[in-house]
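Project outcomes to date are best conveyed with an example. Our students and postdoctoral researchers have been running inverse folding experiments weekly, and each run begins with a structure described purely in tokens. The record below, which covers 169 residues, was selected by the lab manager from last quarter's runs and is presented without edits.
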């Protein structure tokens, strides 16, 4: 083998080795992103944007005296929306403004759900209206307000659901 052929062969071997190393193995299905070293949705731009948008929506609901029946219905429909178009929220839609619309509806739904006892967790962030409002108005005022809001349709619906579940037993 000539020197030129040997160089070509070594170069081809290095190239093949580099290509083989560049492709990381696929993680097993269901593996946690923390174990795989890949970024999770919790640290994504979407989660960060929601962590800024939801408290502002909670404040807006506070100014309107809490969520009403229309807010609850809209929040319910967001689940279906995310099931059918969630990829457009994560990866951007080709239709101008659609991603922003889905984001706004998701943020509003999370704000409504944050009024539920204990709040709601989404994308690794916990949203609790009482804790959010305590940052704006203080813990005592937020607690009083959230106790006052328990008369809203959200609380009434939860009480009806609890009573219905107890009746089935």
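After processing, the design step wrote out the following sequence:
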């Amino acid at each position: 083998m000539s020197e030129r052929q040997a160089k070509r062969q070594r170069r081809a071997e290095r190239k093949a080795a580099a290509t083989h190393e560049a492709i990381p193995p696929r993680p097993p299905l269901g593996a946690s992103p923390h174990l795989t070293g890949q970024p999770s949705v919790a640290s994504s731009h979407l989660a960060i944007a929601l962590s800024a948008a939801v408290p502002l929506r909670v404040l807006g609901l506070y100014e309107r005296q809490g969520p009403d029946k229309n807010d609850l219905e809209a929040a319910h429909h967001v689940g279906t929306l995310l099931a059918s178009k969630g990829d457009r929220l994560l990866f951007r839609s080709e239709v101008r403004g659609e991603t922003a619309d889905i984001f706004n509806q998701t943020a509003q739904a999370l704000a409504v759900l944050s009024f539920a006892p204990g709040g709601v967790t989404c994308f690794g962030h916990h949203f609790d209206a009482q804790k959010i409002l305590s940052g704006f108005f203080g813990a005592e005022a937020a607690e009083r307000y959230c106790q006052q809001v328990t008369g809203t349709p959200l609380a009434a619906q939860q009480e009806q659901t609890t009573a219905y579940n107890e009746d089935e037993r």
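The beta strands are 120-122, 125-127. The longest helix spans residues 69-91. The training component of this project remains on track.
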